[in-house]
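Late entry, evening session. Most of the bench is empty. Finally got around to the prediction I had been postponing all week. Sequence below, unchanged from the version circulated by S.P.
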Amino acid sequence: MTTQEQTARNMLNKHTTEGLIQLFEETNNNRVTEDVAMVRGWIMDVLEARDVEKFDAWLDSIQDSPRAFFL
């Protein structure tokens, strides 16, 4: 893991769950680039660490946003 990636992950960890979901939803409107996919992955990692059961339920669903599962 690079220093830049660790810094980004540390910043994401400081967000509330609602804040993380908002950030995730904001990336839905962007063209998917490698950078956007990477950030979405980091957000997903934090959400999974916070509540693996809710995370798994979200992934098993057909919903694009984790909002209904975490909030």
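Two things to note before I forget:
The mean pLDDT is 94.
Residues 2 and 8 are 10 Å apart (CA to CA).
Will write this up properly tomorrow.
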